Amino acid sequence: MTLIEGHRSLTPDAGIPVLDIDPYADATLRNPTPYYTALRDAGPLVYVPHYNVLAVGRYEETRQTFSDHETFVSSRGIGLNDFNLEKPWRPPSIILEVDPPDHTKTRKVMSKALSPKVVRTLMDDFLATAEALVDRLLEQSEIEGVADLAEAFPTAVFPRAVGMKDVNPRHLVDYGAIVFNAVGPDNSPRRQAMSRAAEVGGWISAACARGRLTDDGLGAQVYAAADAGEITSDEAGMLVRSFLSAGVDTTVTGIGNALWCFSQNPSQWEALKADPSLVRPSFEEVLRYTSPVHTFLRTANIDTHIADHPVPEGAKIMCVLGAANMDPVKWGDPDVFRVDRRPTGHMAFGAGIHGCVGQNIARGELEALLSVLARKVARIEPAGDAVWRPNNAIRALDRLPLKLIPN
Question: Which residues belong to the signal peptide in this entry (predicted)?
């Protein structure tokens, strides 16, 4: 069988519109808005010949496809390659790339470790770290928003939350970039990321071992589930690894994107400062507006339909979450960043049983940091052009020169 980017060749139904755009081209990844618009305008389901896949980008079809875990499975990979046909670069995630009933077992362990009750116990550390970091940055005339703040904060608090004894901030950030670039085609971002996979992946695996964790962190809770017979010891190590792949890079991206949003929309920063109760809704709006995770794929596990178009078993479906989060049919004025929008139902954390298991802790980190910034910083001003970093699944900044103007 001839595979295309690791999946079976697809002959689309003649009634499905064709979208001749490369979603993983460097220019598209840096500025996806024209692609999102073209995808939604083309139809509820389109064929993308560049990768021989189908794609959804309108809100309703994206939500339905992403939520239907029985028809559109994750266990065959959330990227272009089909795990039934091609071996992935690492053992599949047992929380992200798995279906029920196995997913139910591991999801229960992770949900308990990352519950709102657990996150509340971490908030004092999140707030103290944010206070110290922001105070230090306010002494500088300019900062590099990605390195100095977006990366510095989660790589300080998250390893402590997990209970890691070994901390390498660069490896923690790069591991997420490797995992998320790996879901795309054999393009430049993937090749560049995978060139470091052996070094970084080896460090991550060692750092997740039980002996390299404290007895009072999130990692210890996962290993306690192994002691209780809920999962195996090997599965515990893989779940701790999932903490690091999903819990650092996406939060770095969320913080960087939030800083960018407020630097570009000063009136919304003033609105947040005037009403601190908007901290949580403002973060949700950042997620909707910038979609830190822009694309995941699903695989049709049976012959089925999307929007009345036939979809054969084995077809890869590109779920473009970034396009769904900017669908004017759902959001009315999606191109406007409003901290009072309260965008319930946005797709930034996914949907259904595969909604982001770490969303509580991500919200906790962002709530702590934004609340401290709103109290101490009068304005967040651009100090140069923002540079976006091409990534096959993440919409992240590479550089963000800023001035933080104190109160």
Answer: none
